[in-house]
Amino acid sequence: MKCYNALFFSLLLICAACGEEKKTTEEAEESVETVLPTATNEVTVMELKETDFNHELISNGKLSARQMADLYFETAEPIAHIYVKNGSHVKKGDKIAELASFRLTNQKTTAWDALQKAELELKDVLIGQGYMLKDSVRVPAETMKLARIQSGYDQALAAYQLADYEEQRAILKAPFDGIIANLSSKEYNTASTSEPFCSIINDQTLEASFTVLENELPLIKPGDRVEVSPFAIAGLKREGNITEINPLIDENGMVKVKAAIRNGDRLYEGMNVQICIHRSLGKQLVVPKSAVVLRSGKQVVFTLVNNKANWVYVHTGLENATSYTITEGLKEGDIVITSGNINLAHEAPVKLIEE
Prior knowledge:
Elements: H1 2-35, E1 41-47, E2 50-65, E3 68-71, E4 79-82, E5 89-90, E6 95-99, H2 102-128, H3 141-151, H4 153-168, E7 171-173, E8 178-181, E9 198-201, E10 206-213, E11 225-230, E12 238-249, E13 254-261, E14 272-288, E15 292-295, E16 298-305, E17 308-313, E18 315-319, E19 323-328, E20 335-339, E21 350-352
Parallel strand pairs: 1-21
Antiparallel strand pairs: 1-20, 2-10, 2-14, 3-9, 4-6, 5-8, 6-7, 8-9, 10-13, 11-12, 11-14, 12-13, 14-19, 15-16, 16-17, 18-19
Helix pairs in contact: 2-3, 2-4
């Protein structure tokens, strides 16, 4: 009796296991049916034509001003007025700062009086030699030289010219249009003659300095268009052109290049930037990078033939940020699939959609 009960219990367990296995298999099949898509692949296409291709080189560099000057006072006098601050834009000839002028004006007046006295002494010396000052063109050069030295006229003239120069330089003016930087002095403090009072930077003529590889030299030339993007300001771009290529390759195989940047608004001296060099290489067969996929390590482009995807091996040439040039595998007029091609197979049916 016990044997019959054990046998009956074993049969129940086997039936339950079979039912569970059948249920699991059904759930798995249902899950696979749910995951595997049955819809036709939706794709976008383009007709392949020869278009202008802009080759791009990417490099990192630093901005500097093409025009920058440190401005100094030449006499140690108290600062009477400061007309600007850091970041102020000035025009050529605008006042930047001014020294107290009493001492300088007094020195100029004293020098002028000394010059007048020396001129009288010169007249007396010339009269003693039988000449008049108004007839100086008839005075022999050697005689005039000795008379000027004896009267002290040359020394007085030099002193007056220096006093006049120092008075004029007591007003610091902008030598060119630009923006003020490195200004730290305060009014009523004595100006330093050994340190710059401030700097002026022409921020409309910035220059980008960067390097390219030796093997990239054939791809650039002076005049090529560049696009500058500062790392600190996302989305900001400024255009310019290559102005010079240093004809020297350093020990690392790099060549120094400079480019003038137009419209330096929001760009600053010393700013780190990314430089993208654009050069037109004429008409090429060009496809977007999204059109090229890898299959078994080879580049493949799908073309549209009779509403089906046609698998084509290709060779690409140059590239830029968005496109490849095609050197082999495609011809002008082919309809190239540009999206929806990630999971495509050869001769898979596709459905066109609008981009």
